[in-house]
Amino acid sequence: MLVAMATGTGKTKLAIAMLYRLLSAKRFRRVCFVVDRSALGRQTKDEFTTTKVVNGKAFADIFGLKGLADVTPDEDTRVHICTIQGLVRRVLYSESAEDAPPVDQYDLMVVDECHRGYLLDREMSDGDLSFRDQSDYVSKYRRVLEHFDAVKIGLTATPALHTTDIFGKPVFTYSYREAVIDGFLNDHEPPIRIATKLSEGGIHFVREEAVDFIHPPTGQVETVTLADEVDFEVEQFNRGVVTVPFNRAVAQELAKYIDPGDPDKTLIFAASKAHADILVKELRDAFRNAYGPMNDKTVQRLTGDVDKVESLILSFRNDPLPKVAVTVDLLTTGVDIPKITNIVFMRRVNSRILYEQMLGRATRLCPEIDKEAFRIFDAVDLYAHLQDMTDMKPVAADPKFTLTKLFEELAGRSDAEHKNRIREQIIVRLRRRLKKLSPEMRARFEREAGETPEATLNRFVQGDPVDLSKWAFERPNLGPILDWTDEDGTPRYMPISEHDDEVTSVTRGYGTADKPEDFLDKFTQFVRENVNRIAALRIVVQRPQELTREELRQLRLELDAEGFTDSKIKRAWADAKNQDIAASIIGYIRQAAIGDPLIPYVDRVRHAVEAILRKRDWTNVQRKWIERIGRQLELEIVVDRAAFDAEPFASLGGWPRIDRVFNGELEQVVRDINESIWKEVG
């Protein structure tokens, strides 16, 4: 079965509570909790060790818990945390059948982040085991899960096709939009799109132009005269062509919006490590030009190869510096940094799942810095590129697995069927390479292989996979000779573009509306056309004091489905009117429907509370309760009977106790406050 919950809504906490109940009821004997990275395994163990479940005791104090360091569970182990890589090794690559774990070792398997594909996080640093491609990942993943005679529960924020194939359709779903409406996650403002002359027109090299090419791993530069015209579009920037002017123009624009002196954090996604280095330099220069002297630690590259990467991640989360982290894929998932309020896309991705995981880095609430929403800066038109893509897109459709890795895997230990699949891939790639080998490459290949490339191709077509494995093992340098790209997919030589660039426009994405005024007009039209169809909308316009919390939630879901989120409406009003008013969604609806003045909701509540306190001679206890109700109204917008049975009121006695304080008149007091909120402008 599958449980789908948005990032940041407590999947691990839910799992701990669920496992406590299941183990307490003796429904299951031993649970395997599967993660796909060591860092997540350690984080999960910390959760099990610190989360209190009953009588002040943590889960690990009640049930036996084993972590990643323990290869096999003990007799009294009730939860065993494992990586999927470790399980693959134990199940599929054990020395003998007797060494493989018994099928009844676990009777329940809980798989965290079960959507994950091997390419979703290219900088996974575990190194336990690599997967050749998407089909290889899913094949091993499924074989390991099916090895155990156990119930399987998958936890994910973004279900993928292979996820539902294995676990079935979700039995419970709690979406990001619901979490935003319920106040558990932050929404994002309409994306800010930064367009430049080059991003819109592309980079064009003419025939016979002398162009510098750089070898990214070494920095070596060679000048080549082009035999033909070459064009690059924005999705190829910093992947297929180096363009410092584009990065400089975007960095200078970002400096207008991001102040490194503010307490919030910024996460930037680059195309490669080399691209990240360019961005770090340009951002430092842009910030210094805009704000004066600055510590280099303010902007840092955060990729898997930096020194003490785990320590740097902790600094980004907990310390004042760095303020800006430039990464490739390292921080796409599994890292909780609530202070991130800016997400910047400097590279295209083709996976909706990966895109949503990237956005998930900024959705956490952070009252400490008064975070109300986060911003998306899009320099590669990614938001529009992915708008219509399905959430169920496969995680990796065309992995760039190099010949170097294919030869290494063929030479390594694996089953005969696996070797044959590798052999077939090598044949296909060899055929492509043969047509394009330069005389120098051909000579190097013949020296290493002891035969021509054509003879090697014939060897692989006719040879036995086991014999080929030994042959490849004895010739480890063949792969690098044949590969034109490095392991991360970066071309060995990339042209350097010196074409000038400048920002041509900065716009916000309001869906089908190009301008904030158009968006507000569409919102007004929707409200007026549906005020008699949607009951909650009619209550907001005619009797706002009678609105319940559940009615407000359903109304927000209805507006959300039409693209009218709180964050978009507030941002559109600020952009169109040059007024940043912290009004409530009720205020915006009433303004659109009947022209009510737009007043900050906090001001409305405070005026209403003051009016109620002046209305009669309250006792000190009653006055304090009215002020408490007012503070809760500022947070929730609606405080009804149901609100008094939830926190913060429930632990103080709830409705019955508070009603006694008001001599049975609490209902009338709440009604008077709610009526006064909207009478103030009447």
TrEMBL record:
Alphabetical UniProt keywords? Hydrolase
GO MF term (any one): type I site-specific deoxyribonuclease activity
Record flagged with keyword Hydrolase:
yes
Cell inner membrane as UniProt keyword: no
A Gene Ontology biological process noted in the UniProt record is:
DNA modification
The organism's place on the tree of life at top rank = Bacteria
Q: Name one Pfam family in it.
A: Helicase_C
One GO CC term on file: cytosol
Q: What InterPro entries does the database record attribute to this sequence?
A: EcoEI_R_C_dom, Helicase/UvrB_N, Helicase_ATP-bd, Helicase_C-like, Helicase_Restrict-Modif_Enz, P-loop_NTPase
The enzyme's E.C. designation: 3.1.21.3
Enzyme class (EC, first level)? hydrolase
Q: What is this protein called?
A: Type I restriction enzyme EcoKI subunit R
Q: Which stretches make up the Helicase ATP-binding domain?
A: 1-177
Helicase C-terminal domain location: 253-407
Q: Which organism was this protein described from?
A: Mesorhizobium amorphae CCNWGS0123
Matching entries from SUPFAM superfamilies are given as: P-loop containing nucleoside triphosphate hydrolases
Output the Gene3D superfamilies linked to this UniProt entry: P-loop containing nucleotide triphosphate hydrolases
